[in-house]
Design brief:
heterodimer; A: mainly alpha; about 75% helix; elongated; B: alpha+beta; Ubiquitin-like (UB roll); Fumarate Reductase Iron-sulfur Protein, Chain B, domain 2; five-stranded mixed sheet; two-stranded antiparallel sheet; 9 helices; about 35% helix; binds protoporphyrin IX containing FE; binds FE2/S2 (inorganic) cluster
Chain lengths: ~220, ~250
């Protein structure tokens, strides 16, 4: 597979993950509701998700996307590194490209580690942990969320990781659209703006949730 | 003006090289960067030392033969110029200047600052042409070309193949070069005929030559003396995707 095919895979899996992020963010918005609706709605939503076969399928595709995206990024990064075995004595890359465009591997690695922590805290607890029930008798994932974000360091970690997500997407969305050959004389700038809005909006949205829970439900 | 230079010296392709310090004096501010090296070389030759090898030809920014890394920037930090069009007045008197050859495994060092860029030629040989005999210039109205297509094709065709894009890219990728070559033909009716095969063979050759992949950092375009736009990389990708999902004629 040539590097362009690899980049197409990166772009498609990356954009699918972007779609996942939107759905995931919208699904988490009930957390911002007043109590007790927040708890009941969030738990009802979680239960509905875990029983919906369509969501089951989507979560498998999401998992596959993360795996493919990560593995292909390793293959690409290795090739890219080996294309210049003698380095420059002096290099000033910051003058010609933004740092986050050159540090997608680092940002991605942070995201991968974050995913592991995130899955352990919520997915694992919900599936296998000792979780209470709410007033409607549903497994209380809401309680798990509130408990997790009582710790300052954990809340701060989330906010930092969402910063990494924001930068990964800031370059990622623009990069993916170019990888897929999108460009337009008139709407190009408009699309660029949409990508930036998306990156900032999604990462800020995800960062607000833990901070809100930490402050309001402490 | 006077400068303190740190220059990569390497006697041949298979020997080790190193940075060597030189001082050069009496350089007029209006001297080009290459002329500054000429001044230094004259003093070296007078001392019976081997002159510093560097590539050059037109010295007027149109041939793409010159090109070195100057203080970590391809063709220096002045935007939109080749090394031969960079003038010493854009440096401060007494500056220390680091001069290195283009670094990419696909561009092996031949001697000092001279690298072998024939990988780019082989990519063009793989398909960067139209094989139909076009004869003399056709009657203008017989092959209509929309103005925006003509403009963009011309922008792409402005690529002089200097290799600054490869030199500056963190992946030593040749995407901008290949994009310019594919794009300028793909935009014109004469080039459309073979567009599908062209993009396939040129990409295959690019891969074979050992360049890295494209991470879309856009450093290439920022450093390009001809300001080749990233739009051409999008077009190259688009042509490549089309060629992948359609069958041959
Ligand atoms: C929520 C998770 C993620 C999303 C939404 C996402 C999205 C994207 C997108 C849209 C791209 C642009 C593709 C292109 O340039 O065509 C990208 C590139 C990249 N991603 Fe991710 N990504 C995620 C997680 C990861 C992870 C876990 C890793 C690796 C450990 C990773 C590593 C990379 C790398 C290295 C690139 C740049 C590849 C290159 O241009 O050479 N990403 N990502
Ligand atoms: S020598 Fe021809 S472009 Fe510099």
């Amino acid at each position: 597979m040539d590097t362009i095919a690899q980049k197409i895979l990166m772009a498609l899996t990356g954009l699918f993950l972007c779609l996942f992020l939107v759905v995931h963010l919208v699904g988490n918005l009930p957390l911002l509701m007043p109590l007790p609706a927040a708890q009941l709605r969030f738990n009802a939503y979680s239960e509905a998700l875990s029983h919906n076969p369509l969501i089951r399928l989507a979560s498998l595709v999401t998992l596959a996307s993360v795996l493919v995206h990560t593995l292909v990024s390793l293959v690409l990064t290795r090739r890219n590194r080996s294309a210049r075995s003698v380095r420059y004595a002096v290099a000033r890359p910051a003058e010609t490209s933004p740092w986050y465009a050159r540090r997608m591997g680092l940002l991605g690695t942070i995201l991968l580690l974050f995913l592991l922590v995130h899955m352990r805290t919520f997915w694992w607890e919900y599936k296998f942990g000792e979780v209470g029930v709410d007033a409607a008798g549903r497994r209380d994932l809401y309680g798990v969320v509130v408990a997790a974000f009582q710790a300052e360091w954990y809340t701060a970690l989330y906010v930092l990781c969402m910063g990494a997500l924001g930068y990964h997407l800031l370059h990622g969305v623009a990069s993916a659209s170019r990888t897929l050959g999108l460009h337009h004389r008139r709407y190009g700038r408009w699309l660029e703006g949409l990508g930036i809005t998306f990156a900032v909006g999604v990462s800020a949205g995800f960062a607000v949730l833990p901070v809100f829970v930490y402050i309001m439900r402490g | 003006m006077r400068f303190h230079l740190k220059i990569w010296r390497q006697a041949g392709p298979d020997v080790a090289g190193r940075m060597v310090d030189y001082d050069v004096e009496n350089v007029p501010g209006e001297a080009s960067f290459l002329e500054m090296l000429d001044v230094l070389n004259e003093t070296l030759v007078a001392r019976d030392e081997p002159a510093i090898a560097f590539d050059h030809d037109c010295r007027e920014g149109i041939c793409g033969t010159c090109g070195v890394m100057i203080n970590g920037r391809a063709h220096g930090s002045l935007r939109g110029v080749t090394t031969c069009q960079l003038h010493m007045r854009s440096f401060a008197d007494g500056d220390t200047i680091w001069i290195e050859p283009w670094r990419a495994d696909a561009f092996p060092v031949v001697c000092d600052l001279v690298v072998d860029r024939s990988a780019l030629d082989r990519i063009v040989q793989a398909g960067g042409y139209t094989s139909v005999h076009t004869g003399t210039a056709p009657e203008a109205n017989s092959i209509p070309v929309p103005r925006h297509a003509a403009e963009r094709a011309f922008d792409a065709a402005a690529c002089i193949g200097c290799g600054a894009c490869v030199a500056t890219c963190k992946n030593a990728s040749a995407m901008l070069f290949v994009a310019a070559k594919v794009s300028h033909l793909a935009l014109l009716p004469q080039g459309r005929v073979e567009a599908r095969d062209r993009v396939r063979t040129m990409i295959a050759r690019m891969e074979q030559e050992g360049f890295g992949g494209c991470s879309n950092t856009a450093a290439c375009s920022a450093e390009c003396p001809r300001d080749i736009s990233m739009e051409h990389i999008a077009r190259l990708n688009w042509e490549s995707i089309k060629a992948r999902i359609t069958s041959g004629s």
